């Protein structure tokens, strides 16, 4: 309603835009676009803690018993656990919050992606901060009252909505600010989502240690403190967002329409309402789903797989996993934790590396590399395990996890190339339903096959071999889908009139010269401000890398 008269000179006069409205954050000519990535990182580093929530499971499973879990009776099922105040929650029950995170991430991004394009990244970022941090406060109340349904409602549902909105909030904006480096720009932000747990998990562990008493495991207060910290960072990120005026482009950059040999990059735009009926959308959906399904299955089984495959050799003992005593099992668990930390570094680094490389290779070729190289890596794992070659085994999974992260970071630019930039954030939101699907498919396949192989009586060091070949099959499916991706039929693109109407609804200015007195219309951005913004996200990220490196060191000792 704020600028109804933008495309209608005869209409009523425009009302003053609100502080959170999109038209208030149109950048002036002197704005430095390198201020936008740290704003996106500030939000993604906070919501990325969703990956690290498992740090709370063991303390919460002893919330009443403190030293040991207060076991529920056999007659207490899942629904009874939601409301019980007399026994502790099982770890498997707590894991439902993790499932809700990613189901709600995909569904909320799909449902409200179109709204985000019109409301703008600032409003979406503020809503994300309120939902994510407010959800953590509700969870703190749930822990205090020992009501698990409150935790599911708080962090699971409300927090999951904030997760989805926060995840897609910078995508469209970054792609418009960096049309010359689409992959790198989205890679920087989505790298933050992968790095969120790297910062949040050790921070949560330190806070729980500080707040724990003889009668309290310290989780509730940890939720409160982290919610407040995250709210400050997320609000700073949301308020730091700026959008470029229509027609803005980097100095010296040639738009794709004027380039040769770029048939996969369009200068037209598709409306989000049409994507469900476009074959290329579903092909890219399958590309993401297969890449994520294979990778997410590995993440879940990385630690037990390393321990069961190499057993005592991880600590210099000539014994298989089943023959180790409790002390030895504890020692190899420490080594496996270092392996998991190493994978997290490659997951994060791969998001930036592969997405940036895709600007040179092209998105389609980048995914071909993911599927071909990934398939070879998975296929090599059984031989590495059989030969006891830990270096090749670990190296294969490091490459695999880098491409898992790279797949997330490259897909927004792939969508922008195919469907245009006007509604890429909303289209990306709908594509994230592939992530929600993969979050179920990957772990189910991996866990079912492991249990099936154990049931057949196979030695523990061999139970993952068949699983690796199934994951290769998933990547072959993804490769075939990627090879079938072609430029869109022109009939799918918006007409000039439809595009103009969509821009009017999105409150976009027709030209940079029309930018008025919005908050983004200041003069030349100071280099000191850009430096401070990057330090604001760089210091926490460096601390997280340092803490993770300490864990990785245990793997090599």
Automatic annotation (TrEMBL):
Pfam families: MFS_1. Signal peptide: none annotated. PROSITE patterns: MFS. The keyword Glycosyltransferase does not apply. GO terms for molecular function: transmembrane transporter activity. Keywords: Membrane, Transmembrane, Transmembrane helix. Residues 40-490 form the Major facilitator superfamily (MFS) profile domain. The chain crosses the membrane at residues 34-58, 95-112, 124-142, 148-171, 183-205, 217-241, 281-302, 332-353, 365-385, 391-415, 427-446, 466-485, 528-546. This is Nitrate/nitrite transporter NarK. It comes from Aquabacterium commune.
